[in-house]
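call fold target=Prolyl 4-hydroxylase alpha subunit domain-containing protein
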Amino acid sequence: MSDNKEADCLWGSDAVVILDRLLSPEECQSHVMALLHSEDKHKSSTPHRETESINLVRPAFSDEYEARLLPRLFSGPFKEITITDSPEDIKSFGFGSAGRWRPCGVRPEWTIQSYQASTGHLNVHDDSTYIQDINKVTLVSLLIYLNEEFQEGETAFFERADEDPEGAPVCVRKEKPQTGKAVLLRAQDVLRAGLPPIGGVKVILKTDVLFQRVSEPLDAETTELIEEHARVEQQLDCMEVCSAETVQEVTRKLKSLYRRCPALESAGSLLTVSKPLTSAAV
């Protein structure tokens, strides 16, 4: 870990925080080598992204990095996040998410991802949330630059114009990769893209920060709605192998839930347990 004591850089209405040298050069190099020597790399080649990556579940370094990160979270704008019951927040974070949330750890699934020279990229996007349970979710994404031996390859941040919220987003800032530098950003709130590196391969380490609900817990009725909706959604995922009678029954249950709580239908998502990543061999 570096002894760099420079103040963390904040910009973007409390939505993005830059941490200088969260990891040492030696730590970064070990992760770069892990990716290079892995036989389980996953290549994604679509118009939206061109990357290679490996997934790591509960790697040995996870607890150490968590202990290093959390004190800096508690001294910055992410020490507590409030989600309101407004239609905008419900649509972004899901039914049942309103309340006050504080950081409690990092998601134990990490991804090491590379962008090849000139072609590697990730188009404009925002991040979804990972839901461990109805009281523990990821609200902040973490990415760490592992190298800098290339030109360009910045993380570009975008905003939509107030006068045209449905129009194309406009780039408002570019963050230059530096070895060990970390970027924390609010999931669902920040649009970003990974630009192609020139003259070298760009490698990053990614995970998410878990937040614990610290406001009043959900009432029994809301909890029941969420759990029942999750069961119905699981059945919907299997509709291709269901009989016509089962499809009708699932549809009836869904409509019944929406009658009981119209906000469920308008939310577009809700708090439910997410599927974990599968770990790669390194």
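return ok
Helices lie at 25-37, 62-74, 87-93, 220-237, 244-260, 262-267. The chain has one domain: 9-213.
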